[in-house]
């Protein structure tokens, strides 16, 4: 299937143009946040979809009706994608749940003075890279990933779509004290999110949330597993969005040499950063 060659470059970062336009990206930068908003922030392939499901289920106190009847991009739309503004006009849900992959230096000004609750979802970058590589193979709206060594190099250089993982995580976490921001690394954390959102749950409600946002449930839920997206955009014959959902899968892909290259770049770029990342099970 032919790739959709539509790249939109915005402030030096490339974005897939079938969903991002100059207008929608500019609109995101001036977005009028409300203090009740919940904003899920992540670099792609860090567990964004998982968090969209967790927040939906916490809001519904573990009742899966909404998460099984409405696609994730309608209940937690990406701020920077073209359909977001219209969708919000017709939405009455409170709190509004929004998602973004934008870096802090672009979105920070719109969030200044805002009390919106921000959940930053992170994942160790070796698993992000492997997940992103496989996703590029099936996502026709992204460039051909080429070979794994080439892709790894581009990831470390920060030249892939959505920009540099290093800049993204450092930009957002360095501003945590100034924002109502909660930093999470992918783990079992549903109860922490419900505390942050000030939505305490009864034990059975929490258990329902955990059950419905498990990898196996999400893999079978067409409202969250992206099977509704047509093959021209997401070629389902080349892979699955809910691929493995494992911590440490990078070990199946990296050679010893690639691992040393990655570690050297990671060390030099992250030397001032004291982040807790989970690299293996
Ligand atoms: P893999 O490709 O490693 O399987 P995003 O939503 O940010 O694009 O991230 C997608 C990644 O999150 C995929 O990783 C996907 O399988 C994983 N994921 C989604 N839901 C998950 C869940 N409930 N448990 C574990 N991993 C999950």
UniProtKB/TrEMBL annotation:
Q: Which UniProt keywords apply?
A: Catecholamine metabolism, Cytoplasm, Transferase
Q: Where is the Sulfotransferase domain?
A: 35-273
An annotated Gene Ontology molecular function: sulfotransferase activity
| SUPFAM superfamilies reported in the protein's UniProt record | P-loop containing nucleoside triphosphate hydrolases
**Claim: Zinc-finger is one of the keywords in the record:** no
A GO cellular component term found in this entry reads: cytoplasm
According to its UniProt record, the EC number is 2.8.2.-
**Any Pfam family matching the protein:** Sulfotransfer_1
Instruction: Just give the chief location class.
Output: cytoplasm
The places in or outside the cell where this protein is found are: Cytoplasm
A GO BP term here is: xenobiotic metabolic process
Q: Which family does it belong to?
A: Belongs to the sulfotransferase 1 family.
Q: Which PANTHER family match?
A: SULFOTRANSFERASE SULT
* Name listed for the protein in its UniProt record: Sulfotransferase
Question: From what organism does this protein derive?
Answer: Poecilia mexicana
């Amino acid at each position: 299937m032919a790739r959709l060659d539509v790249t939109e470059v915005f402030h030096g970062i490339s974005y897939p143009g079938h969903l991002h336009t100059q207008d929608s990206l500019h609109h995101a930068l001036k977005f009028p946040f409300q203090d009740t908003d919940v904003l899920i922030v992540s670099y792609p392939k860090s567990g964004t979809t998982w968090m969209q499901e967790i927040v939906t289920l916490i809001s519904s106190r573990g009742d899966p009706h909404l998460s099984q009847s409405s696609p994730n991009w309608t209940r937690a739309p990406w701020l920077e994608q073209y359909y977001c503004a219209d969708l919000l006009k017709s939405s009455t849900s409170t709190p509004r749940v929004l998602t973004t992959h934008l870096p802090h230096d672009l979105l920070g000004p719109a969030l200044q003075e805002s009390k919106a609750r921000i959940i930053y979802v992170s994942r160790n970058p070796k698993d992000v890279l492997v997940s992103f590589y496989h996703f590029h193979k099936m996502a026709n709206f992204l460039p051909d990933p080429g070979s794994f060594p080439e892709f790894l190099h581009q990831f470390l250089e920060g030249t892939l779509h959505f920009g540099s993982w290093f800049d993204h995580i450092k930009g957002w976490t360095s501003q945590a004290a100034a924002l109502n921001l909660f930093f999470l690394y992918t783990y079992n954390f549903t109860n922490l999110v419900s505390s942050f959102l000030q939505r305490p749950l009864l034990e059975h409600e929490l258990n329902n949330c955990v059950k419905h946002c498990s990898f196996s449930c999400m893999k079978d839920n067409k409202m969250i597993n992206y099977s509704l997206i047509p093959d021209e955009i997401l070629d389902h014959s080349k892979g699955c969005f809910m691929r493995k959902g494992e911590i440490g899968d990078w070990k199946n892909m990296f050679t010893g040499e690639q691992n040393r290259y990655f570690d050297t770049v990671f060390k030099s770029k992250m030397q001032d950063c004291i982040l807790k990342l989970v690299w293996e099970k």
